[in-house]
Write a structure and sequence with these properties.
3 domains; binds flavin-adenine dinucleotide; Globin-like; six-stranded parallel β-sheet; alpha/beta; binds protoporphyrin IX containing FE; Elongation Factor Tu (Ef-tu), domain 3; 12 helices
Length: 404
């Protein structure tokens, strides 16, 4: 049982919110500089998200501010705690790692605020950090415990061989992953992601999250990866270097974006681009396990060249019988034609959804690039869909959430 924070600690933390808002990014950067003095701690992170423009810098700064702002109403943080705890389990963050962040964070606050960081303020922040840290550690330990109880479950990094590599479109390739130990794998919840560790020999390993793009089966996972031309090269490495038979490592499926075991309402699945991956896992599961469920899948992509897994989705819908599908192309290429290659030219809109899907009665699952999510979630809220029926996955750190 956690001892509640004292009124004095809460007041001192709240008093630092304006200063943190002004210095949040600098404090976080200073914190990472201090934290990454230790190579073993640095190696825990996804290096692509660090650095001056790194999204993780924003994610942690945003988390700290949200925490300080809500310190007298910690219930508001529950969804954030759940997401962060799953992310930490995916990156194999353990209780013994927490003191390093405490030292780095408090040192950074002291360094950046200078004289304004009185011993009382540092003490209050220490108490507040450990209060949050205990909540996260507790949840992460519980998640790891559950993972070990389930058939095929494991914790930490496990070796997987690439059993198949399939080109799905001009930009997306799938990889089927089978455990090298030949034992069963945990049946993930449809929508969850893996954290993978891979990279060229002799270089620091890359760590990336990939949503599982097949239904749970106890035997293997499939991921489907878009090749990104820019950035730090994780997706390029997978596309260009990884061959059938190569071995990469994965932590167990994680994430709190998934189709429930017993869906209570019709479902509307909306994806943009490579955001289709968790939806394919859900569609396969719906076809196999939920014959009575009404499902609607609406997917947006550029054109037929980038359109992945269309034949597979069509056959799943046919097999299920209660799944409708619609496809939007925003940039049709020569030969693409509505009612032939796709259904609608343009972007998915709330007006179209209102006319063609039961958005007032359904649970709505979205995954896609930030502008896709920001636009559709805002539109769905405006047409009156309650927030608790809108579920989304973002393919990056939550950073400044979808607001900015
Ligand atoms: C929960 C979750 C699930 C995910 N599921 C999937 C999935 O199913 N399939 C999938 O393909 N991806 C998925 N991702 C994204 C994936 O983890 C990687 O982020 C993605 O593969 C890109 O990695 P990268 O190393 O190639 O590029 P990164 O270095 O991570 O860069 C990503 C993008 O950032 C931009 N960028 C970064 N640096 C620069 C720069 N210097 N200049 C210009 N632009 C830049 C580029 O647009 C680039 O394409 C998921 C992410 C999360 C968090
Ligand atoms: C109270 C303490 C902590 C808070 C508030 C916190 C907060 C966060 C947040 C907000 C994210 C982003 C989640 C998302 O993608 O949505 C995150 C991810 C992460 N955290 Fe923490 N964290 C804490 C402690 C730690 C510790 C102790 C470590 C390890 C030393 C750690 C390592 C990581 C890693 C590796 C990621 C994933 C980074 C990525 O996606 O690149 N965190 N954390």
């Amino acid at each position: 049982m956690l001892t509640p924070l004292s009124a004095e600690t809460i007041a001192l933390v709240q008093a630092t919110v304006p200063a943190l808002a002004a210095h949040g990014q600098v404090i976080t950067r200073t914190m990472y500089r201090r934290l990454f003095v230790r190579e073993d701690i640095r190696a825990l992170f996804n290096q692509a998200n660090q650095g001056d423009g790194g999204a993780q810098v924003h994610a942690l700064a945003a988390a700290i501010l949200a925490y300080a702002q809500n310190i007298d109403n910690l219930g508001a943080l529950t969804p954030v705690v759940e997401r962060v705890a799953h992310k930490h389990v995916g990156f194999h963050i353990l209780p013994e790692h927490y003191p390093f962040v405490a030292d780095a964070l408090l040192g950074a606050i002291a360094e950046v605020l200078g004289d304004a960081a009185t011993p009382e303020i540092i003490k209050a922040w220490g108490e507040a950090y450990w209060f949050l840290a205990e909540i996260l550690k507790g949840r992460e330990t519980a998640i790891r415990g559950q993972l070990l109880q389930l058939e095929g479950g494991w914790t930490g990094w496990r070796a997987f061989a690439v059993a198949d590599k399939v080109r799905e479109s001009s930009v997306i390739t799938s990889f089927v992953l089978r455990p090298v130990d030949g034992k069963p794998v945990l049946r993930h919840r449809p929508g969850q992601y893996l954290t993978l560790r891979f990279g060229p020999a002799g270089a620091p390993a890359m760590k990336r999250n990939y949503s599982i793009s097949c239904a749970p089966n106890g035997d293997h996972y499939r991921i489907s990866v878009k090749r990104e031309a820019h950035g730090n090269g994780g997706s390029r490495f997978l596309h260009d270097q990884i061959r059938v038979g190569d071995v990469i490592e994965a932590t167990p499926p994680a994430g709190e974006f998934f189709l429930p075991d017993v869906p209570q309402r019709p479902v509307v699945l909306l994806s943009g681009g490579v955001g289709l991956t968790p939806m394919i896992s859900m569609l396969e599961t719906i076809a196999a396990d939920h014959p009575g469920l009404e499902a609607h899948y609406i997917h947006g992509t550029l054109n037929s060249a980038t359109h992945a897994m269309h034949g597979h989705v069509r056959s799943l819908a046919k097999r299920h019988g209660r799944t409708t599908i619609a496809t939007f192309y925003s940039d049709p290429q020569l030969g693409d034609a509505p009612n032939a290659t796709h259904d609608v030219t343009g972007y998915i809109t709330a007006d179209w959804l209102r006319a063609n899907a039961p958005i007032d009665a359904a649970d709505i699952y979205l995954c896609g690039p930030k502008p896709f999510l920001r636009g559709l979630i805002g539109d769905l809220a405006r047409v009156g869909v309650p927030p608790d029926r809108i579920h989304f996955e973002l393919f990056g750190p939550t950073s400044e959430s979808l607001a900015a």
